[in-house]
Amino acid sequence: MTSRFTELTIDCHDPELLAAFWCEVLGFKVIDRNEGSVEIGSWVPTIEEVQARQMPATLLFVQVPEGKTVKNRLHLDVSPIDASTEDEVTRLLALGATRVDVGQGPGRSWAVLADPEGNEFDVLRSLA
Fold it and tell me: Which of 29, 47, 79, 96 pairs with 21 at a CA distance of 20 to 30 A?
């Protein structure tokens, strides 16, 4: 008996805003929308596919009243697939990301950014 990793839930103030941002970052689409939540993914999960094998997880943005107060204990890492790391950082900044310092120090091969609600994520080396 096992479980499957099916979704990562992110608390936020504005699920629509963050879903739109992350859809642009990852090339995902909205796959479900309810009052106070938006789910995005690269595929529409079915019970049969999830039971058969581990499939890519979806992201679920859920509206909560409180704001983010400390550094994330869990964060996403993204790897550019058709551009340099710095070109991808430039694209993400134009989408609404911001650069953040979480103590990573200078000279790293990755960049630390935050989404429009301040959730940190890393842009790793390019796979191009």
Answer: 47
